[in-house]
Amino acid sequence: MLSTRVNKAYRLQLKSVVRQTSTTPDAKSIQSPNPSKISSDMIGPPDPVSNLRKIIFKKPDNETYLEERYRKLRMEVQEWNHNFWAQHNSRFFEERDLYLKNNLPEGKANLTADEMSVFYKAFLDKNWKTHLTYNKEWYKRNLTLLGLAIQVRITKLFRTKESK
After folding, report:
1. Where is this region: Disordered (predicted)?
2. Burial classification of residue 164, based on how many CB atoms lie within 10 Å of its CB (0-12 exposed, 13-18 middle, 19 or more buried)
3. Are the C-beta atoms of 74 and 153 separated by less than 8 Å?
4. Can you name the residues that pair with 46 across neighbouring β-strands?
5. Which pTM was predicted?
């Protein structure tokens, strides 16, 4: 429910920005919302290459050093994740197109799923070590984020108790 509201708000804001910037929307002409002026984190549409949805993290007015560190690390992890999947997917599509070019019989529009499975298996086998390295790094980064998130929550809990 919250995700739907956030997505709607983000799309509305993007439409507003597009209307203000040009009559023909260009992905590069759309500016991201200002993190200190939004009321909550905003989730954007899927990236055409990485297929990941960019999140614009709200910057609270009274953000503590720990909260800022957590927010910036989340942004860094998101960017790292986006870069990995953008490179991976670009490689995948290039290699798939090359495979189709070399293996598509004349007069045929597509290969069957069974015929394509040869390519998929070869691609996964070739990139096995890359995926393993990515997964290890992803777990490390997310455990670090989890530790910071717990620290932020505990700090907020004590700050709330002190203010009462």
Report:
1. 20-44
2. exposed
3. no
4. 53
5. 0.73
